[in-house]
Amino acid sequence: MSMPPVLSAGRSPSWASAVLLALLYYLSARLGMQLFALQPSNMTLIWLPFGIGLVLLVRHGWGALPLVLLASLAANYPGLSGPGWQQGLLHALLAACGDSLSAGLAAWLLQRRLPEGLQRARELGAFCFYVCLLPALLGTGLICANLFWGGYLSGKAAMQLWPALLLADSLGVLLVYPLYQAWREQGWPSAEEWRWIVILGLGNLLLILLAFNGLSALLYLILPVLLWLVVKVRLAGLHLVLLLSMLALMAVAARQPGPFRGLESAEAHLMLLGFVITSALVTLCLGLYYRQLQLADSSRAHWQSEALHDPLTGLLNRRAFTPLLAAEHQRVLRTHRPCALALLDLDHFKVVNDQYGHGVGDGVLVQLAVLMQQHVRDIDSVARVGGEEFAILFPEASAEEAAQALERIRLALAAKPLAIDGEQIAITVSSGVVGYRGGPQSAEDLLEAADAQLYRAKHGGRNCVMLADEVLPAA
């Protein structure tokens, strides 16, 4: 079960991790300005700090908002400082306020609209609109207005820059927050997953390098590689490779045009961001949908297992055992290879319940179930078909061979009392077994024949195995 991203100062795991996240915010901002900035506009193609700021607030609550402000201020000041340090500090502070406002609004909308985080594919649209676009629209709008007011950009340049900043901020959330959530819910990938992460991650890096060095068409193979990962690793590993692949793509694109010719134009900037965002959205959507299918299959298998197994002993119940017996009956008719059916019943079990209570009685049933499974083959099927009555189906076995297994069970149970809740419970079991090699008898006839042998055992002194002559095929 995922943890809802409740914003609360008391929920903070530790302020050391908050400071580390704030430091990561600053470093990712400075690194982004160096690696992902297009020249001569100095526009950053991807703004990871937006996603990191969201994670910081989701993880530590509103009390961490000053850390977002300080980290953004420190990151923005070098680029906005000019002849007058006061003016540079003012506009850096305004930019930091815009960054903090967008991160805070994203965290608040995430809590209101998706209190459990991004869990299902159908929630991706709401996540993009409320958590990515709306907060980024406000934050980047304030930043562009600040750049225009400070004289850093003309009005036209600021308006042209706004859509690209909006996409860059949204991309930062799309790549960072799902990775954080998946990592928190699932933990570290397994060793097998790490192998796929490394192999396919390096494969994407190679595709990017080749695409920007003359083989442009290879760029479009990045998405199939990511989709291959969908079925190979859990979401945490998928999001990690997605993040690293998109970062590598942006870093290379910032230095050479490659498939995106004319990157000095605003249209080309948006084309590049559109490609990356589309790749991220498709990967996220299919990853979430595939996880939904896995959870649905797991849930279906769980409830099917619950419906077909006894909740106390974990053995098959009558509902599951009856079709197994019918299928085995048909197999014998086809192949004329034998099977045997046994019914077992605990002796004087009512006395145990009356003397020690039903809790101890349940313990007896559980230990008998374990004992039976220890003394039969893997291909044999053990079921609890009544209160203290059990059935065992022995494929490819004669009645005599089945009787030997039943005798081992009887001797093991009679050898020493069962230790249950500090009580020593001495109890025995009676069994009846019948064999079948094909013939007119139905599966129900086999049950009646085994029950008749069990009746003989119960009325012949108990604590014994009664064996019927095998039913022969009709002449």
UniProtKB/TrEMBL annotation:
Residues 337-470 form the GGDEF domain. One of its GO terms (molecular function) is diguanylate cyclase activity. Its cofactor is Mg(2+). GO terms for biological process: cell adhesion involved in single-species biofilm formation; negative regulation of bacterial-type flagellum-dependent cell motility. It comes from Pseudomonas xionganensis. It is found in: Cell inner membrane; Cell membrane. Pfam families: GGDEF, MASE1. The chain crosses the membrane at residues 12-33, 45-69, 89-111, 123-149, 161-180, 196-223, 235-254, 266-290. SUPFAM superfamilies: Nucleotide cyclase. This is diguanylate cyclase. It is a multi-pass membrane protein. It comes from the Bacteria.
